[in-house]
Amino acid sequence: MGKRRFSDLHCHNHMRAHFQMQEKAKKFRRKGEFSPWTVIASNHRNHQKGVMGASYSQIDLVKCWNSNLRLTFNSLYPLERQFVKGIDPKIGKDKWFRFLTSAILGSKGIRRDLLQTAYMRIPDKVVDYFQSDDYDYWESLQRERDFVLMDSGKRIRRNEIHVPQALLREERLARKLANQHPRLYYAEDACYRIPTNREELQKSIEDDQEITMILTIEGAHALGTDRVQSIEEISQRVKEIKENWEAPIFFITYAHHFDNHLCGHAHSIPGMGKILMDQSERMNAGFNNDGRRILKELLGINGDFERDESLGYRILIDVKHMSARSRKEFYSLVGKCLDKGDRIPVIASHCGYSGISTLDRHIELEDCEVDDYTDESGKFNAWNINMCDEDIEWIVRTRGMFGISFDQRILGITKEDLKNNPKRNGIQLIWENIEAIIKSAYANPNLSDEEKPMVWKCLTIGTDFEGLIDPVDYYPTALEFGLFSNNLIFEIEQARKKSGQKHLAHLKSREDVEKAVEDFCFNNSKGFVVENYLG
């Protein structure tokens, strides 16, 4: 058996490099560093601690290469300006909290910029750009696309390293760490390829000597929904992506953290994030008419829910970050198409299990979503950003894909866990979520006996690395995927030995368990993209 391969259904391989370079492209070109392969030197101490991945890289292309991650779904994401704009104190929930933080930080100015730079590890000049009137999501999306395309198909001898704001001492320290930990900093004779058609995809995905990179988009705001004069402009941009872009977009995470003027988003920002960000506008709302129109155009279906070839190839929809109300309406559309024989695979690219039964129940519980809010078992994060039993049913019925996030909060770690049960914050946490999803499918009376086992083929890794997440202990970067997979084999092997485990009954041996883990780590997402690319 060869070396185990890995995939990631949702990550940002180029994020740190692009943030550092986008406002100083000429400078980086002169130094020969303007490339998605360039590693931005990390805070090694924070990496070792496994704290929030803002000050160190989790899944840059070098780590992909050295971890044998050979299929990556790389998400283009123009940073939402609400991350860097001031707070507007107003009547309503958190009024006094917002007033106090505004008084301390100011809505503009150096104190706020310093905190943003510290919180998100974005260069101050780039923060200024994001705050300016010049920042345009649609233009930024295209720049990001061009950045990741620039080295597609090229084989590099060795990548460069950039040390941000380097003093001589920091430069020396970075070079020393690179020599001590070459897998963190260097890739040699390496290549990634963004396939432009199905033939290229098939060839690339069978070639272990290159990373197959599939492009996705996080947030429909990236289409520039905040500035257009009419929905016709957004419609035209969807058409431009499908007809004129060199590489296809496989799926779009329709909602994200803030109002995209198309559909409601789920509550997603906890704790201290409230100091910097207000996501209340249209939070937990549903679709509006513009959102319904763009949704259908992305999927290539007309007003009668029938496939319309004139609308181009299908861009699939990722329901992560969609509010429960929005997901409920989306599944209604999916059901109408399914009744006509058109299967639209449902994707939840970087999620956890919520422990909640239905979307209606999630809607009833919206106001309960305080920090550390869990389901009745106390195990799972019950915010409606996570997937409930009804979501899982739709993923299985449509042969979709559920990517398991490596964000400890999303998976259900609470402050009490960190204090009293820190051992849970590891493979136990991830396996608890995976097993709960599988059990949910097996217990669902709406799924047939033939459909229930299909849940095993609908699960994969979806870390959200480089998305400012606080990772599960022991797996802070892609380089720990090998350790993770071995730990997962052990957990499932222990679980299958217990009697009466219907959802594990097909696993008769350790070899069966190893095959199931290899499917989870790579084969499931490989089969999914091969089946649905440019569908």
Automatic annotation (TrEMBL):
<protein>
    <recommendedName>
        <fullName>Membrane dipeptidase (Peptidase family M19)</fullName>
    </recommendedName>
</protein>
<dbReference type="InterPro" id="IPR032466">
    <property type="entry name" value="Metal_Hydrolase"/>
</dbReference>
